[in-house]
Amino acid sequence: MAEVLEFRVPAGSAQTLLVWGLEPTVGLEHSLFSVFSKFGLLYSVRVHSNAAVAGPGCYAIIKFYSAADASRAQHACNGQRLFQNSPLKVCVCTKQKGFQQQVLALNSNKCQELANHYLGFNGWSSRIITLQNVSGFDDENEEVGKKRSVRYLCAVEVTLPNHGVRTRGVGLGEADVESGEDPLEFVTATRRVQKLAVGKALSSAFQKILLVVLDDTELCDH
Q1: Which residues have CB under 8 Å from 18's CB, separation 6+?
Q2: Apex CA 30: angle with CA 25 and CA 35, to 5°?
Q3: Which residues contact 8 (CB under 8 A, 6 or more apart)?
Q4: Confidence class of residue 101 from pLDDT cuts 50, 70 and 90?
């Protein structure tokens, strides 16, 4: 059975596990991550304290990129003690009718993590096509002595050589800098904006790629 993965924040209920019956301990998120990451790549692990009416304890929301990985983890871990004395209860989150969650693009770090997991470190590459300073185009609208904007526009190309896929993305990074600020601070802000523009462009390029997972075999399309 094929599963299509996008370079977006997992929003489906089938990709999300609810874990309750947790005993409050130091490093609980790390313990959960260690157990559930064995079943597949995780987007996030979040631990919350129970509501007062539910009594002491914690519950966790665990998001997988793959619904198949989440299902395997649920079946394997439900009712097991794992790292604590009492058994855990694990279920796949049920879909809420009438509630539509906004689908967000993954940031560049998460995109690279997902690509490395399914394609391998050598299964993809990226290059910066251009990184251009576009500051000052609307300086006439900025008051003298007030903040000025630093803007960089970046275009990035992502290549998956084993699959013949090549995509491009564009990103804009910007920040306000106080006029008359220390030159070193201005240089630091410029580098931060450049990094932001590159990250946004990389994320934009990955949005055009789909990972089609077939029995641990990855195929790609765009």
Answers
A1: 59, 60, 61, 90, 91, 92, 93
A2: 105
A3: 103, 104, 105, 106, 207
A4: low
SS3 of 163, please? coil
What DSSP designation does 23 have? Answer: P
Give CA angle at 29 (24, 34), nearest 5°: 120
Dump pLDDT digits (tens) for 186-199.
Answer: 888 899 999 999 99
Prediction pTM value: 0.86
Three-class DSSP category at 49: strand
Contact present, 62 and 17 (Cβ < 8 Å): yes
String of DSSP letters for 8-32: B----GGGEEEEEEEPP-TTHHHHH
Number of neighbours of residue 12 by Cβ within 10 angstroms: 15
> What residue type is assigned to position 198 of the chain?
V
The C-alpha atoms of residue 32 and residue 89 are separated, in whole angstroms, by: 13
